[in-house]
Design brief:
By secondary structure, the chain is an alpha/beta fold. The chain is about 45% helix and about 10% strand.
């Protein structure tokens, strides 16, 4: 019984730490039209590719950093770095093309960026938020000692979908 209470309390703490309590109403009205927009944790958004004019809306909503997981070749007609900096935010690009780029090195790199920006507000995005979810699931498991089940739940909060089997395979290694 005591172990069950401790486990329940720990689960609640983990859920709150990862922002699983964040609700859709936490998203600014100016951002609701962004593809696959989510607010999975305090000061953190995930989404699919924002439209070029959406970056100013993110800045107005208080976002200070944009972490783009798309390789530049996926968006050759968009100079996202220029759009983000023009809107007054810092820009980071960590290209994740797909399952082959779901590496510990890339997870550590994104974790270092998140540690550097600390509690400042950030958007992490790819095309659909799937790669964001995959990276965040692996980060939870590899760097924050979440169980595989917890990591997958976290990944889904961030947008994990089609890469889930790849993430599960990596978590079993």
């Amino acid at each position: 019984m005591k172990n069950m209470i401790i486990k329940s309390a720990l689960t609640l703490f983990v859920m709150m730490s990862f922002g699983w309590y964040a609700q859709a109403e936490d998203i600014s009205a100016s951002l609701k039209d962004v593809k696959s927009i989510r607010h999975p944790a305090t000061n953190r958004y995930s989404s699919g590719q924002p439209e070029p004019d959406s970056f100013s809306n993110f800045a107005q909503a208080g976002v200070q950093h944009v972490i783009n997981l798309r390789p530049p070749a996926e968006t050759p007609d968009i100079n996202e770095a220029a759009l983000v900096t023009k809107a007054g935010m810092a820009y980071y690009n960590v290209p994740i093309s797909g399952a082959n780029d779901l590496t510990r090195d890339n997870v550590v790199l994104i974790d270092k960026i998140l540690q550097k920006i600390d509690n400042e507000s950030a958007l992490l995005h790819c095309s659909s938020s799937n790669r964001v979810g995959a990276i965040m699931a692996l980060r939870a498991a590899w760097l924050e000692n979440a169980t595989s089940d917890e990591a997958i739940k976290i990944g889904k909060q961030w947008g994990l979908t089609q890469l889930q089997p790849s993430v599960e395979k990596l978590l079993m290694q």
